[in-house]
Amino acid sequence: MSTVRRKLHDSPYYRIDLVEPGVVWVCRTAAAYPDLDALDAEHVAVERALEPVRGHGLLVDLRETAGRNDPAFEERMRTHRAMIFRDFARAAVVVRTAIGALQVKRHMSEDGFSDRVRVTSDEAEALAHLGQPRRSRTGR
Fold first, then answer.
1. In terms of Cα–Cα distance, which of 17, 13, 18, 54 is closest to 34?
2. CA 129, CA 119: separation in Å to the nearest integer?
3. From CA 67, how far away is CA 52, in angstroms rounded?
4. Which structural domain range is residue 73 located in?
5. Which of 47, 62, 72, 112 is deepest in the core (most CB within 10 A)?
6. 76 located within any domain
7. Is 3 helix (H, G, I), strand (E, B) or coil?
């Protein structure tokens, strides 16, 4: 069975695809934001891309990006995180490291999403949480 994909957004910072059946795959790339204004502008575009597919399962893949936790960045991201996870009944976040998992779990708890967001380093576990078959974004 082939996987149907529809590209929703592609930028230096995010790749977002609708992967049928019913998973929105948000991949944060390794590209660093040059400043906080670029971060804000990118998240306006991300929100626009996510709006028509809210209600699907959401998989946020953070494995490519480096962690960042300076206070100004954290404050800006708080609003953007809430926008990303809003109106998705189920979500999963895939991270690369145990430290990344701890940070994301803390964020999900602070944002009130911890009851419906699974944080894991295992892509198959994330897809299972979303009720999806074991397949990767590339269909493997």
1. 13
2. 10
3. 29
4. 5-129
5. 62
6. yes
7. coil
- Retrieve residue 5's tokens: 């994909």
Residue 16, both tokens: 């977002």
pLDDT > 60? residue 87: yes
Structure tokens at 30: 């390794």
Structural domain includes residue 135: no
* Three-state secondary-structure class, residue 95: coil
**101-118: per-residue pLDDT in tens?**
999 999 999 999 988 899
Q: Which CATH number does the domain housing residue 10 bear?
A: 3.30.750.24
Contact 78, 111 (CB under 8 A): yes
> What's the pTM value of the predicted model, to 2 decimals?
0.89
What is the band of 18 on the pLDDT scale with cuts at 50, 70, 90?
very high
**Is residue 67 included in any domain, yes or no?**
yes
| Helices (H), ranges, 51-97 | 71-85
Q: Write the single-letter amino acid at 46.
A: V
Query: Domain count of the chain?
Result: 1
* Res. 61: pLDDT tops 50: yes
* Domain assignment of residue 140, yes or no: no
